[in-house]
Amino acid sequence: MPSRLTKPSVWLPILSLVLVLGGWEVVGRSIDPLLFAPPSAVAATLASLLATGELQAAAQVTMKALFLGYALAIIAGIPFGVLMGALPRLGDILQPYLYAIFSTPRVVVVPLIIVWFGIGFEARLFLVFFWSAIAISVNTAQGVRHARPDLVEVARSFRANRIEMARHVLIPGAIPFVVAGLRIGAERAIVGVIIGEMFLQIVGLGGVIQKGSVELLPAKMLSAVMVIAVLGTIIVTMLDLVEKRFQSWRGEST
Amino acid sequence: MTNATIRNTHPPAIELKGIRKSFVLSEGRNARTVMALDGIDLAINQHEFVTIIGPSGCGKTTLLRVMASLILPDAGDVLVDGAPVSEPGTKRAMVFQTFGLFPWKTVIDNVTFPLMVRKLPAAKAREIAMEHLVRVGLEKFVDAHPHQLSGGMQQRVGLSRALATGADVLLMDEPFGAIDAQTREFMQEELMRIWQEEQKTVIFITHDLDEAVMLADRVLLMSRGPGRVREIIDVDLPRPRTDYDVRVRKNFTETRSHLWNLLRNDLVEQRAEETT
């Protein structure tokens, strides 16, 4: 978890950005332009790709599969995780398989996905959804299982039913785990969509990277990488806000 | 109505008949069965204040949980107002040692929780909760979260929550054990006042001898090992009691030293066993 700085300084990040870009520029200029590109060249390519609308169109394709798949993963993953956590037997039965899938490199199953879903939008959507949902539900289940037994007993003593138990005790207690799951899920979703675009159907930002590679245009590849990085940063920042919203009760000291 | 007539006309608030409960402790390969309650017979009268004391591991917490129907006994019956029970009910409410407040809920939402479970309209639940919070002087903290309150304040919330349910019987598991000594004295007096005003029945676990004698009509001493009732001692001290008045009375010191002598033997044995 990122620790909060007491006085957020703007100068430190700016300084680091200048140093990184400067270093990159120096190194980039000294390397064969077929292999690497300095930030100045990337910026120029980025501008021209934006001018033709190619990058926006690609980003749109990527975001469609990414956000839809991620949203579905959240909608399916959280309730499934709650179920797995609340019913320990179900959790015990499914957990090993989920861990197995979770830790299998996604590229390995690309051929299977082609067989099942073809190479189009559905296949990419599945790639995003499936791995992201597993990360979210495994974490949610873990959070529910870590519910404080004393609070479970409190709710039981006041005759809370299963649904009330889930809503007022298990889920709120699991939220730090769920948010961690959403983070891992987001990372998995981004990797999933890019893999889909590079190895299934050459479209979207992943497609731009692939094309850049084939055309020996490192600046084009790096432009797409930059956009993906920005996209990822936005998602992670949004999750930070979600986390803060849900954890106001924790206070500053803990 | 005198206590004697209440006893004659009402069944006991809580009655235990032949309660047995054992647990299986699994320590690696050698799992062993531990007898926590070994045939407990006990009747707690309406409006009575009973404290339970005993060496650690004597089964007093198990006993309280059996009374709350949070644990089902292996054998025996739990009767509330003469009727057998097998699940938590609205006539009994627990107050917990570590307060048992939901950290993600505000003070008021913690107190309304049991009422909400009972499907009371939100406005009505809030009204009842407010009434009880005002009584313990927490009206300014209704929208605070538990972590913002001191231990004593948190337990006042826990007590308000139990009282707001309207339960006749309060089952209190070392409720003041995690509270500093000075605050504890205030809380004891507050609890006795509420108990007297509202005619509650209180069953109160403690490990503090002074507290056990100070609060109780009867002190129930449990013995170590297989959980049994060793002795039930009537505390003959006038009410209302305040800490200062009671401690200097002869009955107080006599009852206390009597209990201590009984308890001491168990503690000496326990220590001897632990060191061998």
Keywords:
heterodimer; A: mainly alpha; 2 domains; 80% helix; 0% strand; globular; B: 276 residues; six-stranded mixed sheet; four-stranded antiparallel sheet; 9 helices; 10 strands
According to DSSP, the number of beta strands of chain A is: 0
Write out the CATH superfamily name of the largest domain in chain A: MetI-like
The termini of chain B sit apart by: 55 Å
Q: How much of the polypeptide of chain A forms β-strand, as a percent range?
A: under 5%
**SS element count, helices of chain A:** 10
**What is the percent of helical residues of chain B?**
25-40%
**Structural class by sheet pairing and helices of chain A:** mainly alpha
The interface involving the most residues is between: A-B, 23 and 23 residues
Unreliable spans of chain A: none
By CATH reckoning, the class of the largest domain in chain A would read: Mainly Alpha
Largest sheet of chain B: 6 strands, mixed
Sum up the overall morphology of chain B in one term. globular
Describe this protein's structure:
The complex is a heterodimer of chains A (254) and B (276). Chain A has helices at 11-30, 39-52, 54-86, 88-103, 110-117, 121-145, 149-157, 162-199, 204-214, 218-246. Chain A is mainly α and 254 residues long. Chain A has 2 domains: 1-30; 37-253, MetI-like (MetI-like fold), CATH 1.10.3720.10. In chain A, helix 2 (39-52) packs across helix 10 (218-246), helix 3 (54-86) runs parallel beside helix 6 and helix 4 crosses helix 6 (121-145). Chain B is 40% helix and 25% strand. Chain B has 9 helices and 10 strands. In chain B, the strands form 2 sheets. Chain B has a 6-stranded mixed beta sheet with strand order 6-7-8-3-9-10, sandwiched between helices. In chain B, a hairpin with a 2-residue loop joins strand 1 (14-27) and strand 2. In chain B, helix 3 (107-117) crosses helix 4 and helix 4 (122-135) packs across helix 5 (151-164). The N and C termini of chain B lie far apart (55 Å). At the A-B interface, helix 7 and helix 8 of A face helix 3 of B.
